[in-house]
Specification:
single chain; 515 residues; alpha/beta; Rossmann fold; Serine Threonine Protein Phosphatase 5, Tetratricopeptide repeat; DNA Cyclobutane Dipyrimidine Photolyase, subunit A, domain 3; two-stranded parallel sheet; binds flavin-adenine dinucleotide; binds iron/sulfur cluster; UV-DNA_repair_photolyase; Deoxyribodipyrimidine photolyase-related protein; Crypto/Photolyase_FAD-like_sf
Length: 515
Amino acid sequence: YKTLRLILGDQLNPSHSWFKHKDNDTLYLVAELKQETDYVKHHIQKICAFFSAMENFAHALSCAEFNVLHLTLDETQNDKNLPSLLNRIAKKYHCSAIQYQYTDEFRLKEQLSLFKQASTYNVTAVDSEHFLLPFSQIKERFSKNKHVTMEHFYRAMRKQFDVLMEQGKPEGGKWNFDSNNRNKFSKNDLVDIPLPKVFNNDVSTIIDRLDKHQVSYLGEIKNQRLQWPTTRKQAISCLEYFCENLLINFGQFQDAMTNQSEHNTSLYHSRLSFAINAKLLHPLYVINRVINEYRQRPNEISISQVEGFVRQILGWREYVRGIYWINMPDYARKNQLQAKNKLPEYFWHGSTKMNCLSHSLSQSLTTAYAHHIQRLMVIGNFCMLTGINPDDVDNWYLGVYIDAIEWVEMPNTRGMSQFADDGIIATKPYAASGNYINKMSDYCKSCQYDVKQKVGEKACPLNSLYWNFMHTHRSKLEKNPRIGMVYKNWDRQTEEQKAALLKQAAAYLVDLESL
Ligand code: FAD
Ligand code: SF4
């Protein structure tokens, strides 16, 4: 072969221009690598989802008569990184040129850029043709260490890509319907939530391989069947299911959480993040399909459901990617609140008396999934209030979630949820007491703690931890106009009340394991 083309596990984009023409001089390489299973301890479902999707992609290419080499851990056990793999394969197949797509992760970009500089092969890198905002435009929209408001970015993207626009104005008369998107479930709402769309992918051979190569992982897969979509066809059917059954209520229940639906962890959410991040689906394809559903059922589906969904993909997803690339590698070291505590053990088994946390952790560990508010306002909030080191928090999220790839995981976790990034993403910490959890969920009803109590044995720990957090970081946060009111409320309390709250929090903080 003349050219070797590398396809990474999150570059399974069938519409890439590489596949517009077939040529017999090109060999495509899809390879499982130990460095990818081992850079953090991953959930077994996450490793299986990537390996299975890679295998399926290689198979589809091969059926379409491209020359493909799919290598498993059996064949790559001596390749310690991408350069060693590429050198070995290029030599074996007598290639003179090597091509790769720009990576989404800094870690791999470093590896491949160094390889490119030092290589004797003719090495070129091409766009991955996935994101809407061209990589070259990131530096026009974002500046290092500077806050960029997501809402401004999102509006610019709506205009640039002409999404939900009517003669230069936002469709429905408003850019943002967030205020309609904060409903809690009533008992009746819960009865009707459709079951999630799941698949039955046999991944037993992949699990055997992981065990054979002593890959260390967490979590389980029931009956060795993976429920996540790992082909483009499955990803499309997941999107179709979302449009037909879930979109109608997506926006209004976007932030709601519940204990009640054990079989229904994703509620009205789409479960598309893995498929989109692996590039099985293009973001614009997803957006257009959702808008098309809305156009066909205008009397049933309201603009606020659709806008809420579009904002996540056209807004947040593209935004966090911009923040990541403009700020890496320094972003990975940010710890503005100097959080140093260790992650409590229950993050690995879910067993804590705090029902909100126990439910969200157990669900994450069982399914490799939690929706946005569970990640942000339950697990993330707990970590921030208890001062857990953001490195530990990042590693936990990166390992546990099915969709976790550093470019999207880190800004969401370290930035949005931990406020460790000097306010680059959020203008204020997403800190909440038990009151917020009680407002958005039914977790508190079956909790051993009492959400209404602030001190005492039964008091919800989040109440005193919240005030302790605000008190500890007062000098940093007080001048923030969005937080001023909080300190007015704090100062209004008597000295005894304040002392009791701080004492209560201190007792939790010396023994987080006991919660
Ligand atoms: P839906 O609620 O149906 O949303 C639709 C799509 O919008 C998602 O599939 C996703 O592609 C996109 N999206 C929504 N919110 C965000 C966001 N904040 N950032 C980027 N894209 C978004 N998402 C990841 O893909 N990988 C991660 O590692 C990840 N880590 C997170 C960590 C924290 C602390 C928080 C608060 C959020 C994180 N998110 C991450 C964003 C979001 O929680 C997930 O994308 C979402 O829960 C995936 O489920 P879904 O596909 O059902 O999403
Ligand atoms: Fe969580 Fe507190 Fe409610 Fe218990 S009482 S579920 S700890 S918010």
